[in-house]
Amino acid sequence: xxxxxxxxxxxxxxxxxxxxxxxxxxxxxxxxxxxxxxxxxxxxxxxxxxxxxxxxxxxxxxxxxxxxxxxxxxxxxxxxxxxxxxxxxxxxxxxxxxxxxxxxxxxxxxxxxxxxxxxxxxxxxxxxxxxxxxxxxxxxxxxxxxxxxxxxxxxxxxxxxxxxxxxxxxxxxxxxxxxxx
Length: 181
Prior knowledge:
Blueprint: E1 2-6, H1 8-24, E2 38-42, E3 58-65, E4 70-77, H2 82-88, E5 106-111, E6 114-115, H3 124-128, E7 131-133, E8 138-139, E9 143-147, H4 150-158, H5 171-179
Parallel strand pairs: 3-9
Antiparallel strand pairs: 1-2, 3-4, 5-7, 5-9, 6-8
Domain 2Fe-2S ferredoxin-type: 59-151
Main location: plastid
Subcellular location: Plastid, Chloroplast
């Protein structure tokens, strides 16, 4: 089977040609075609009975959720994000942005491997130390991970750039600031 798509350039050219022809030749009827260029793209169409043969490999993912004190085990296809698959199976895991930019869904890999090409929230250095983001992670083998404290991972990622460490709460400065209001 082939999917037939009109050429984008030819579609644009067709509209321009018809518009010009209408201006100078009012007898050209509406719906007339000026070009016939088409792309023929072969596509494979699967029926529900064929889908079993075209299945994507799945892997068992075990998540040790330290914050909640529970362990989740679920199957994730190689072509789906771990967080998305967990949610579709009614498993609640920590997350925030869903775009790989923060550290809310950060985990430490205990065993197995995953692919995370869009994980911007952790550096290459942290990735090499076994950190990963579930929201943009695809399993490539059976996987066992442990959730991390978001602040700890954020500190590992950016802490060296912020002076001498985390900022401690200064109640006196807070009182002064609140007194001005």
